[in-house]
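Researcher: Please predict.
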Amino acid sequence: TQLATLMTFSIASTAVSVIWAGYVMSDIMTALERKNVDGFHRGLWIYLGIIAAGIPLAAFYRYTEERMALNWRDFLARTFTLRYFYNRAYYRLQGHQEIDNPDQRISEDVRNFTITALSFSLLVINSTIQVLGLAGVLWTISPLLMYVLVGYAVRSAAQYWISLMPASLTSFFQRWISETTMVRNSSGVLPTISVPSPASRLA
């Protein structure tokens, strides 16, 4: 329930503070360019209203995030504490000198885990929502530009992951990407890709 509430606040905040504000700012800049005083004042008041609406959304989002982290931390701390006391496991841990203050370590590790995991998860969710929202705006402006940006992003990501591969695979995929982006020849057949063998590379 709290995760659904967080996603709802994130979608609402993105729609209000990013998408709607972008449209209003565009209207304000258009009014400035055309020296439309009434349009500029109207857009400015709408923009101030967006800021006023975004403040409680951000506050409730932060509150829900902290509440979810606290509940998750409480659940994990209770679970590990019960396992710590189950079948007198704490007696067996007393003989291990490398494990000091197990109760404190449970509390600190659970706190660090919940903060890191929740922050990373929400970062991925919020970034995905913003990308989808802005992609929808870009699609309404120019579908062709949307295709170009998606293709550029995919190609850049492919080149990054290829750079992490071994040298032989990197050479093969780089040549494949560069040659498949070339214009087809008169016969309509792409040029063949020849990959040198390891023996020839060593020679």
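Model: Confidence is low (pLDDT under 50) at residues 183-203.
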